[in-house]
Amino acid sequence: MKKMSFHPCGNYRESYAEELSIFETWFGRVCLGGFLLLLFGLAPFFLSPYLLYILNNIGIFAIAAIGLNILIGYTGQISLGHGAFFGVGAYAAAILATRLNVPFYLSIPAAGFITALVGMIFGIPSGRLKGLYLTIATLAGQFIIEYVLIQWESLTMGTMGITLPSPSIAGWTISGDKMFFFLIFLSLVATTWFAVNIMRSKFGRAFIAIRDNDRAAEGMGIPIFKYKLLSFAISSFYAGFAGAIWAYYMVSITTEPFNLGLSVEFIAMVIIGGMGNIPGAIFGATFITVLNEVLRYATGILMNVSVITSMGLNMAPLREFVFGLAIVLFILLEPKGLAELWRILRSSFRLWPFSY
Amino acid sequence: MDFFLQLLVNGICIGLLYGISAMGFVMIFKASSVLNFAHGELLALGAFFFLSLVTWGKLPIIVSFLLTLVGCFLLGFLIEKFFLRPLIGEKLIFVIMLTVGLAAMFKGLILLIWGGNLHTYPPFLPDALEIELGSIYIAPVYSMTLLISVVFLVLFGLFFKKSSQGIYMRSVADNQKAALSLGVHVRRVFALSWAIAAMVACMSGIVLGIINGVNVHDLSAIGLKVFPVVILGGLDSIGGAIIGGIIIGLLETFTGGYLNPSLRDVVPYIVLVFILMVKPYGLFGLVEIERV
């Protein structure tokens, strides 16, 4: 059957190939293409440096969140160590760049692979444990990695931190928000493309089978330990890749940001965006990053309101409170996240005037 | 030798504290299989309630202690009613993240109301509890901790073994559907177990506050230290929580004393991974054999 221009009202798929297609209509493809053109053509040239900085952060966190979504949303393995893996990637890139003078286009993927290895080591418990026991094991992984990053001073410079050289390719230096925008968002497009496609492949189907019923998956002949490790590896690769870009973008890194709080933020991105949904991870990263900035701005304003300062109230913890509240409300009211809201919005247009 | 003995005693004292903080956690897990990441914040809430009643309200110690217990009982009840009940039967990740979200909310609230500084209670413990054996000195708070943990251990042991509510809780933890079909009021059991657990948590918070002073960041860090303790002792064993706490406390003080002070905080987690690999149900946990 030829591709339809617009979404049909029912399910008219006739083959598995159609079921698997990413774009059901040419309209969706054109929309995405148009969006990307606008993004790359307009955003870096018209946005203020501050907005561009936020956009870049969203891009970096989205890459890591997509990785975590592969692990949590598709394979059903909860990891509380993603923030630490992000840090491993950042440090791997920093060490490769400063000690071995590896150019950035090699050190960033290399950092991804190193993190994938580390992730596989911490994925080994998944062979014996599942559910909350695995979650606690990854929590321990988070603390152990954090400790190693701080204490292995000969390699990571401990609390001093490492300063990275600017990435350059063929005598062309990448610096400033605008240049990094292209690096980050081209990587985001590539990693999203890879993630969407791996989920259509044999591997993605195996992940979903493990998530839905591990025993049945084993019965169907899926070697689940191998696939769980693979899922840990892919997810850590994404975290390491994002961490490496982040390290270059931030220029100098310390161990401080890669704590449990960051891991929690990544899980919040996955849940708020929508579990088991690749665009959802991007929505979630956007939501959390924007929320953080808005709250920083809002608490900054509240600190200057004379009534509040005269009462001696410190408004900074409000950020933490609202962050927690956002997670709780999403879980209670829309557990499928922003991706589901987006779907509802689209289908209510499609089914208009009979939308429900 | 003296150094060794003092480390031993310190380790046991700290371990008892871990054990006593882990008890509320185990209660919740035992009755509703919820992994509570907000446990540290519950400890802190109890400690701060008590602090406000004692220092701002100027109430007598006993009255404020009882009021705190009642307040925390209600708090646990409300948490269950508004946050956990809609999630009955939902995926594990939602329940875990809900408690993580609650932890952030509580921490934010506490920081808003009481600030991040270290507060201390006025001294009120009788000196009769002080113990001195030769060169070893045990502060009254620690002997009180020992007393409280033994009392609670016995009380909860009896509660879970003998009382009908305790047996309901165990049945619900074991198999919700079967318990429902046998006429157990599952919702009431959940509500009650959260209420009791919050009460135990706030009591532990008060004890911790007496010893270390009341500070949100320290108390919520202890909430995370609970994980190695309960895994070592067995997630659903209250006695195991105490023993696990003592072992973790000893490990911490001995690595801090003999090996490397910076290793102190990470050693419990290394042990945790090891235990999970070798004996995931801990020393005293109920073994559910399931191969994946």
Architecture overview:
- The complex is a heterodimer of chains A (356) and B (292).
- Chain A is mainly α and 356 residues long.
- Chain A has one domain: ABC transporter involved in vitamin B12 uptake, BtuC (Orthogonal Bundle).
- Chain A is 72% helix and 2% strand.
- Chain A has a two-stranded antiparallel ribbon. In chain A, strands 2-3 form a two-stranded antiparallel sheet.
- In chain A, helix 3 (49-74) runs parallel beside helix 8, helix 4 (82-99) runs antiparallel to helix 5 and helix 5 runs antiparallel to helix 11 (224-250).
- Chain A starts with 15 loop residues before the first helix and ends in a 6-residue tail after the last helix.
- Chain B is built from eleven helices and two strands; from the N terminus they run H-H-H-H-E-E-H-H-H-H-H-H-H.
- Chain B has a two-stranded antiparallel ribbon with strand order 1-2.
- With 292 residues, chain B is mostly helical.
- Chain B has one domain.
- The mean pLDDT of chain B is 81.
- Chains A and B meet through helix 6, helix 10, helix 12 and helix 15 of A and helix 4, helix 9 and helix 11 of B.
Short description:
The complex is a heterodimer of chains A (356) and B (292). With 356 residues, chain A is mostly helical.
Give the overall shape of chain A. globular
Return the domain count of chain B: 1
Output the helix-strand order of chain A: HHHHHHHEEEHHHHEHHHHH
Euclidean distance between termini CA atoms of chain A: 29 Å
Number of helices of chain A: 16
Largest sheet of chain A: 2 strands, antiparallel
Spans of chain A of 5+ residues with little confidence (pLDDT < 50)? none
Number of strands of chain A: 4
N-to-C CA distance of chain B: 48 Å
Rg of chain B, nearest Å: 19 Å
Number of domains of chain A: 1
Proportion of residues in β-strands of chain B: under 5%
Radius of gyration of chain A: 21 Å
